[in-house]
Protein 1
Amino acid sequence: KAGVTQTPRYLIKTRGQQVTLSCSPISGHRSVSWYQQTPGQGLQFLFEYFSETQRNKGNFPGRFSGRQFSNSRSEMNVSTLELGDSALYLCASSLDSGKDTQYFGPGTRLTVL
Amino acid sequence: ELKVEQNPLFLSMQEGKNYTIYCNYSTTSDRLYWYRQDPGKSLESLFVLLSNGAVKQEGRLMASLDTKARLSTLHITAAVHDLSATYFCAVDIPDNTDKLIFGTGTRLQVFP
């Protein structure tokens, strides 16, 4: 069974731009979560989607948003990029929210110049 | 707010030695996970611990959970170079969502 996939793997943007990252969960998984990883703040939860509904949200500004489609694929969007948004963005999927192990994708490395 | 602390942050150990990584968390949780991350790579699931007293072992790694003490340990037996990586514990908030709170990570380096 294929794992979690994320596209693109690497991205370079400039301040003020916006970016959309994509995540395809493991087949059959309905829950998708997003995390930001930085050297300073570590791994921080962004949000979780289950059956196209946002179930939970972390402490990030409104510039960070996401959505989930009917096929469970998810996208996250960051608008008005700041230098501090440079990070590894990880997507994870699980069978059912709050009950099963989360499996992580390879991540998207975002660099904001 | 749930906080998760790991120690040590860095661990340099010789091959063949044993060591333990500690993970403390501040509030009640149903589940605790251990993940491994190699440089530039994603997180690989190692263990999920579901109940008080749970113990799981895979190769040279053994994880345990004491929910009363809010403590989990990851014990490394007879370390080998291939175990060099960063290890994270993550605690599941009991709110029926997938939100995980991660520890700071322990960077392990095993040398000959």
Protein 2
Amino acid sequence: RKEVEQDPGPFNVPEGATVAFNCTYSNSASQSFFWYRQDCRKEPKLLMSVYSSGNEDGRFTAQLNRASQYISLLIRDSKLSDSATYLCVVNPYSSASKIIFGSGTRLSIRP
Amino acid sequence: DVKVTQSSRYLVKRTGEKVFLECVQDMDHENMFWYRQDPGLGLRLIYFSYDVKMKEKGDIPEGYSVSREKKERFSLILESASTNQTSMYLCASRGIGATGREAFFGQGTRLTVV
């Protein structure tokens, strides 16, 4: 079983729609969780960290479910510029060393 | 502005050549990483380093080695390049502690082995 698993998509949704992705992780001792965004032919960049209590940043909401070992990303009122690949990232140890990426979920927003 | 710089954007090498990919960061980060990214497989960790001269294998270390002689520089070495090592290689660095949790990436090196 992969340490971090994501639905690869693609998710193809109309502008203005709400879309949600999940990501599951296998190591119950994982401490830190993140969502990264990667545009075509670019390097990944941090979108947001995921906190135990959940967090929101504008149209983006991230949540953590430790019992079921998954994190989620919700995008409301999607924009054309949200088209990208969204990568789930897990730091499986208590120290800030190894970080594991999911294979990414591709999102395409259509006009 | 934080920066992770990879020495080349594009490289073409021949099978059997020894290949060096260099990565430099200017953020005084303890942790540095080498990933390769292939369609449908996402980013796979090759090696990482948490301190000078310290290294740990990632998920796919076979055919690769690394060197970290200075804190700011992390090199990936393909001992004898093969065509299945054709890929996009991404270097990242990351600090430690509550304030150093974001990983910053270089722009990537697209390596083609012919």
